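Quick start: load a record and inspect it. Here is TIR domain-containing protein:
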Amino acid sequence: MLCTQASCFFNAKKSVLLLSLLHHFNSSLAYSLKNCTIKYSLNPLADVFVDCGNCGLVTVPVDIPRDVTSATLLNNLLEKINREDFSNLSKLRFLDLHLNKISHVDNGAFIQLGALTSLYMSFNKLTNLTANLFQGLANLTMLDLTYNNIGFIHTSAFQFLTSLLTVILDNNQLQKITDIQPVLELPQILSIIDNRLSLSLSLSLVISSYKMEKFSITTPTFPHLETIDLSHFCRGPVLKWEIPDKSLLKNITRLYFGDVSIHFGDIRNVLQSLDSLRHLTLNNMERWINQGLLATVCKIPTLQRLDLSWSTIINVSAKLVTCSQLSELDLSMTQTIELSKDSIRSMKRLRKLNVEQNLLSKVPDDIRRLSFLETLILSDNYISELGCDDFINTTHLTELYLDSNNITKLDKCVFEHLNYLNVLDVSDNLLSTLGDTFKLGPKMLTFLDLSRNLLPVFEKGDFQGLGSLKYLNVSNNIVRLKDKAFDGLNNLESLRISLLSKWYYSFRELQGLKNLTIIFSGAAHSKHFKQSNLHDFEVCDGLKSLKVFTVIFSGNQCDFPFPALKQTIQSMTHLETFTAFNIYISALDRDTFQFNTQLKNLTIRHTNLSHLDPVLFLPIANLQVLDLSNSELKSLDFLAQAGLSALRCLILKDNHITVINETVFQSLPALTYLDLDNNPFTCDCFNAGFIRWVLNNKQTQAVNAYQYTCSFPVAHQGRKLLDFNYDACLMNISFLFFISSTCLVVGILLSSFTFHFLRWQFAYTFKLFQAFLYDKRNMKKKGAPHQFDAFVSYNVHDEAWVYREMLPVLEGEQGWRLCLHHRDFQPGKPIMENITDAIYDSRKTICVISRHYLQSEWCSREIQMASFRLFDEQKDVLILLFLEEIPTQQLSPYYRMRKTVKRRTYLSWPQAGQHRVFWQNVRRALETGDDSNLLIILI
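Running the structure step on this input writes:
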């Protein structure tokens, strides 16, 4: 049987409606899919909705998750449904395959879909429905096969569809009644609009078609038939209605006509034969209405609802005078200029009246007579003024829609008698003041829409009488608020408002407010704004109950000039959702959310967060959804320190992210949904880890990841990010790790061995290298005559011996020219240069060796320099005088000295019995020519 809502499937918007319904399905998440998207839901136990639409698919994707409950593959290139395409999808309840090229479906292709309740296969190329096509679909209630080429239906095609309620076979190639025989006994709704049927029926049939020439019911096959819908004929052939037995229509309660071509006499006879009709629709039927059809309609005693919309009716008021039995009347879009006096006055039972989208200039006079009216729709007319008597007697009115008119003011008396009014919509008018309209009521009003008006200011007490109001919309007015403007709104839960932010605002009286949306106009940043006004900004100060806070700036992006906004947010200790669009030009202060520990959803868009401080997120550890789209982010590194372990949804679309380190996601263990669409990714090895993570992780869905494109380097521009071959990157990285670790281990071993066994030799070599450097600087001096006979290198602790024993003999008695650092070094010259000059300006170097000498850094440098000269020139230039007995092992740091000592026989100064002999040996050493290879060690 046809139901009341059957017509929703028979118009051009059908596919759009179906798609909109999908968004009401809950969804969950799984891993990334190559061609599909899994819709996000905060509820982890929610249904899984997979969207594979508009992807150019030629086969059903193999990676659809097994726990999917709703799937759409609309607008693809599928030509065939194979038996295995939907195997293992036992939880699937909704499947949309429309707008493909499907011409064949394997028998049993749906056998695994035992839970499926809705199947949409419209706009395909099916030609016949085979016996086992729908096998397994025992729970299917909705089947749409519109716009195929179906010309044959097997007699057993619907045998498995035991729960079927609705079948749509519009726009196919069905020609005979026998073609639809298999369907007739199953559904409550059957639509076969625009087929090739030429019907002279001996069966009972419920049908909509604009190619029928005869509609005849002769046998009571459907004794419970309730609805006939003939609302989509579009001026087709003249329909001849033949139902000789009036009793066959005894249960008809709903009858829909729409632009149907039928003789006036036939349609009048039809209406006269219906004894139980409750709902009648006559869309686009002005030709018959203007001929007097309503006279017959109004005589149907059971009629309750009459829909005359889309019909241009001449003097409709006069034609409705006798329809006193109606409870609902729809006169929308009828070009009605006025309802004449007493035209609907007799409709004492009228509960709902719809006259929207007409030409009314005032509220019809008869409205005040409808004391039982509950819903009145006057939207989209030309009403400019409301009188005090317009609703004086409609005391039972609960819903009143006055939107999209030209109302300029509201008087106090207009709504004062509407004690039961719950919904009032006065949006999109020309109101410039509220006056005293709402100071006393309506007291039961819960919904008030004043958006899109010209209201400049709200005064104290403007809403004083609306104590029951829960929803208030005053957006698109750009108002300013006076102190206590919202007094009396003690139960308000949701407020949407547009403000000029240069004025003083306070919402302290709205202590029960849970949802607040503020839209600031461009005046917030105008030249009229003064810094002194900052202390006056108290947006929602003290709103402890607020859970949802949205702030939008509608002008050009500019830094939001109110530091008090941060304090405002901090005062909302129960805040769960915060949204800011175009508010901040730079990153938020790190302590902005320090008191918002219950925040779960955070959206900050159209701002500059390139210098975002991760400390900002530390107080909101329970955050589940983070949306930072269009915020000039260049990196995700901040997430590693943000502490967002509970985050499940991360949206970062339209940013400047080029490279992503996959280790960032280790700090987001609960992440299940990631959207990075429209970022300029780089296709190189820096993104290899991220690509591998997207492809291999089984928890987080990177939405549309397979559509991410490369912006850099230029050679890869436009290519798909996930098509980048990262294997070579991973191999190189592994090899580098191997080489690095091997070198590190070997280096540690060698360092340990060297330090233990060769540390002194290496130290000596280093010192020798330093001497070499100094020597190179003095190469030019090698051929010059020597200024001194010997340079004496000694430690300050041995200075007394040098002055007492050495100088008197070598300079006084023997007459040698000695160079002493305290006497002959040039003042102001670097010490190292003085040392090297002294060594190379002397024929010999005498080193006075003692334990103190070995511990001196400068003495060490002097002997190393002299040793290098000895090594470099291969001349007898070094004389070593040992003042103390020093064990050989203590000479280890001086490798060459120790080696020389081991090869020569020597006596120590303390053991020298005759000091004269000692100094004679020194003299012989000084007298030795430069070409001699003899090295004399005097001890």
